[in-house]
Design goal:
The protein is of the alpha+beta class. Helices cover about 35% and strands about 20% of the residues. It has a 5-stranded antiparallel beta sheet, sandwiched between helices. Strands 3, 10, 11 and 12 form a 4-stranded antiparallel beta sheet that branches. It has a 4-stranded mixed beta sheet with strand order 4-13-21-22, with no helix packed on it.
Length: about 675
C-alpha cells in the first residue's frame, strides 16, 4: 500500500485566548505539537516578601489601634474632653467667728490679684521680631491696659515692668468686677498668657490687734484658706468646710461657660463659731493693758475676764499684739500668752496655802492661831525668808491681808504635803484648763513626795510653781463660787448654715472647797482691797475682792553660773472678783517686767480697777441705767514682798527693799529656769 506523504511540519502557532488553566501555560493548537519551554524559571520570592510586608504593616496598625483604643483610650478621651471642658473647684465659704452678742469678729471677702511675668512678655516680643512681626511691645500694651483699669500711671507701670524679670504680684485686693473686666481686656489683647487675674479670697478681722492673739489668722493655700494660729487653727476643720467641683465648657479662647447639664458637686460651707468673748470687754482689757504697759515701760501684759456664774470667758487679751493682715511681722506675738505662758504667780498664790489650811483636819485650830513674824524673818533648813518690814503677830486672815511671806511659810509647815498638793490640784493647778485654745499650758506643780518643808515654804508664796493666768483666774473663780470649781470655756455654740450643731450646756462644776472655806477667803480678799496691799484695785460702786502678787523673775548669773531671782525684774499680778456677795465677774491681770513701778499694788491693781469700771459702765448702758461719774480712790496702802537672793523670798511691799540683796539664800530643790 502506497504510503501518503505527511504534511510538512509547520511552526506552532497559538490562538488567542487558549490557555491551560491547570498548568498556567499557553495551550498549543489542536493537532499541533506542544512547545516545551526548557530552562525557564518563575520568581516566587517577591510575592512572599510583599505579602509579609503587607501583613506586618497591618499588624502594626492593629497594635497601634489597640494601644490607642484599649490601653490609652481613657487618656485620649480625657484630653479630648479637656479641649472643650474643664473642672473648676467651687470654694467653700469659711465659717465666721462671732462674739457672744453675734458681732462678727471675722469677715470673708472675694477680690482679685494681678500676677505678671515681665521677663516672659519680653521673650515673646523677641520671638515675634525674629519672625518679622512688628507691633507695639507687650509691656507697653499691658501698661496702657492697667492704666485704663485705674491701677497706675502708664509710664510708671512701664518702668516697673522694665525693672523686673521674674514673676510677681502687681496688685491685690481688686474689686471682683474690676478684675473680671481686666481679664476680658487682657484676653482681647492677647496678653493673658503671662498676665493672670487670679481670684483671691481674703479674711478680714474688723477688730485687728485687739483680738488677734486669740483668734489667730489664716493663710491662703492651694486648697483654700487654712488657719495658722489661735482659734482659726484650733478649729480649722470646722471653719474651713469642704470645696465642691463643677464641670464647665470652654470656648475657643478658653473662657469658662456654665452648662446646667454638666456634673456639679456643691461645696459644704464651714460652720460658724459663736464665742463667749464680749468684744467690748475685750476692747476694755486691751486698752487698759496698753495704757499700763506704756506708762510702766513693761514688756507686755495679759488679762482674763470670766463670767462668775457660768465660767464663760468674756475676754482673753494680750498686749502688745499684731495686725492679722501683716501676720509675718511679729512671729513672737502669735500665741495667746494668757493661756500659753507659764509664770510664777507670786503672792496671788497664797490663797492655796490658806485654803489647804482651812480644808485640813486642823482647820479650826490653824484659823484661830496667831503667827509671830515680829522678827521680820524666819529660817527653814538654813534658808532665810524675810518681809521688808516687821508685822508683829498676825492673825490667819492678816497673812493674806498684809501678804506676809514668813507668815504663810509658817502656815505651810503645819500642813501635810498630801493636803497641800490635793488642794492645789482641786483649784485647777498642775493640769490644763482645757478651754480649747491652742498652746494651752498645764503648769508645774511638785508631787507630794517632793514637798519638803523648804519647798512648801517656797510654793506658799508663789515661788517654785508655774501657772498660767487663766489657771489663776479659774482658781479665784472657784473661791467666788462658794468653793465650786467652774470649768471656763470659750466656744458657746457651733452653727452650720441650717441649724446649731453644738450648744454649750450648763457649766461643768465640781466641789473643790467647802463653802465655809470659800466664804472665809472671800472676806479676807475683800479686806486686801480695803485694808491691805490692794487699795488701788477698789472699784467705786461695788465691793471688789482680790490679791496682789509680785514675783521675781529668774535670770542668769554668770558669776554663780546658774539662774537666780532678779532684784529688778518681776511679774506683777492681781486676781480678784466683784461684788463680794454673789460675784458676777472674775478678773486676773498680769504685767511683765515693768520699769516704772516696783510692786503689783501700783501697777496691776489700776488695770484691774479700769477693767472693772468698764464692766460696770457696760452693765448700766445695757440695762438702760444712767451712768454715774466714777470717783477714783486716793492712792495708798502697802504691799509686802520678801526678797530672796537666788532662792526663797518674793516681794509684795511698797516699802523700799534696802537689804534685798543680802537677805536670803537660795531655796533647795529648785528647778532651774522657772
Amino acid at each position: 500500500m502506497k504510503r501518503r506523504n505527511p504534511r510538512p511540519r509547520q511552526p506552532a502557532t497559538y490562538r488567542l485566548g487558549s490557555w491551560n488553566r491547570r498548568t498556567a501555560r499557553p495551550r498549543a493548537p489542536r493537532g499541533e505539537s506542544r512547545v516545551r519551554f526548557r530552562g525557564t524559571k518563575y520568581n516566587t520570592t517577591r510575592p512572599k516578601v510583599m505579602l509579609a510586608v503587607l501583613l506586618g504593616v497591618a499588624g502594626l496598625l492593629l497594635a497601634r489601634y489597640i494601644q490607642i483604643q484599649v490601653f490609652r483610650g481613657a487618656d485620649h478621651a480625657r484630653t479630648a474632653r479637656n479641649q472643650h471642658r474643664a473642672t473648676v473647684q467651687l470654694a467653700a465659704d469659711r465659717g465666721q467667728l462671732l462674739d457672744c452678742r453675734g458681732r462678727l469678729l471675722t469677715q470673708n471677702s472675694t477680690a482679685c490679684s494681678v500676677l505678671v511675668w515681665p521677663g516672659e512678655l519680653r521673650r515673646l516680643d523677641s520671638l515675634e521680631r525674629l519672625r518679622g512681626i512688628e507691633r507695639p511691645p507687650r509691656p507697653a500694651r499691658l501698661a496702657a491696659i492697667l492704666d485704663r483699669a485705674g491701677l497706675g500711671d502708664s509710664a510708671r507701670v512701664h518702668r516697673e515692668l522694665a525693672a523686673r524679670d521674674g514673676y510677681y504680684c502687681f496688685a491685690s485686693g481688686l474689686d471682683y468686677k474690676v478684675g473680671e473686666a481686666l481679664d476680658r481686656e487682657l484676653v482681647r489683647a492677647g496678653l493673658n498668657d503671662y498676665v493672670v487675674v487670679a481670684e483671691q479670697h481674703d479674711r478680714v478681722y474688723p477688730y485687728g490687734a485687739v483680738c488677734s492673739r486669740l483668734l489667730g489668722y489664716v493663710r491662703p493655700g492651694d486648697n483654700g484658706q487654712s488657719g495658722q494660729s489661735g482659734l482659726e487653727a484650733y478649729y480649722d476643720s470646722l471653719l474651713s468646710g469642704r470645696p465642691g467641683l463643677a464641670q464647665v465648657q470652654k470656648d475657643r479662647v478658653g473662657f469658662h461657660l456654665l452648662d446646667p447639664g454638666c456634673p456639679r458637686v456643691e461645696p459644704v460651707h464651714g460652720a460658724n463659731l459663736r464665742l463667749t468673748i464680749d468684744v467690748e470687754v475685750q476692747q476694755a482689757c486691751f486698752d487698759a493693758l496698753e495704757e499700763s504697759v506704756r506708762e510702766s515701760g513693761a514688756l507686755g501684759g495679759s488679762a482674763v475676764v470670766l463670767d462668775a456664774k457660768t465660767g464663760a470667758i468674756l475676754a482673753l487679751a494680750d498686749y502688745p499684739s499684731y495686725d492679722p493682715a501683716e501676720y509675718g511681722r511679729h512671729l513672737d506675738r502669735h500665741r495667746c500668752s494668757a493661756v500659753a505662758d507659764l509664770v510664777e504667780p507670786g503672792s496671788s498664790f497664797k490663797i492655796v496655802v490658806c485654803a489647804a489650811a482651812l480644808e485640813s483636819p486642823r482647820g479650826l485650830e490653824l484659823a484661830a492661831r496667831q503667827y509671830d513674824v515680829s522678827r521680820g524673818f524666819i529660817e527653814i533648813k538654813g534658808r532665810t525668808i524675810k518681809d521688808v518690814h516687821k508685822h508683829g503677830v498676825l492673825s490667819f486672815d492678816s497673812l493674806l491681808i498684809l501678804s506676809s511671806n514668813p507668815g504663810v511659810a509658817l502656815l505651810a509647815q503645819e500642813l501635810e504635803p498630801e493636803q497641800f498638793h490635793r488642794t492645789a490640784r482641786a483649784l485647777g493647778f498642775g493640769e490644763p484648763v482645757n478651754v480649747g485654745v491652742p498652746g494651752e499650758a498645764g503648769g508645774l506643780l511638785d508631787r507630794p513626795e517632793q514637798l519638803d518643808p523648804l519647798r512648801r515654804a517656797n510654793i506658799a508664796f508663789g515661788q517654785g510653781v508655774a501657772v498660767s493666768l487663766l489657771q489663776l483666774a479659774a482658781a479665784y473663780l472657784c473661791v467666788a463660787n462658794d468653793g465650786r470649781y467652774v470649768q471656763p470655756y470659750v466656744v458657746q455654740a457651733v452653727e452650720s448654715r441650717r441649724d446649731t450643731v453644738y450648744q454649750h450646756g450648763p457649766a461643768a462644776t465640781r466641789a473643790a472647797l467647802r463653802p465655809a472655806t470659800a466664804l472665809r477667803l472671800k472676806r479676807a480678799l475683800r479686806r486686801v482691797v480695803t485694808e491691805g496691799t490692794g487699795p488701788l484695785a477698789a472699784i467705786p460702786g461695788t465691793e471688789a475682792c482680790g490679791k496682789t502678787g509680785t514675783a521675781q523673775k529668774l535670770e542668769w548669773d554668770a558669776a554663780r553660773r546658774r539662774k537666780v531671782y532678779s532684784q529688778t525684774k518681776s511679774l506683777m499680778s492681781f486676781a480678784g472678783f466683784f461684788p463680794l456677795e454673789d460675784p458676777e465677774y472674775v478678773i486676773a491681770v498680769m504685767v511683765d517686767e515693768p520699769v516704772r513701778g516696783r510692786f503689783a499694788s501700783s501697777v496691776a491693781c489700776p488695770v484691774f480697777r479700769s477693767i472693772g469700771e468698764e464692766l460696770l459702765a457696760l452693765e448700766r448702758l445695757r440695762t438702760g441705767q444712767e451712768s454715774v461719774a466714777l470717783v477714783l480712790p486716793a492712792p495708798g496702802g502697802r504691799e509686802n514682798v520678801a526678797s530672796r537672793d537666788g532662792g526663797v523670798g518674793a516681794s509684795d511691799s511698797e516699802s523700799q527693799r534696802a537689804e534685798a540683796g543680802a537677805r536670803g539664800t537660795a531655796g533647795g530643790n529648785r528647778r532651774g529656769g522657772r
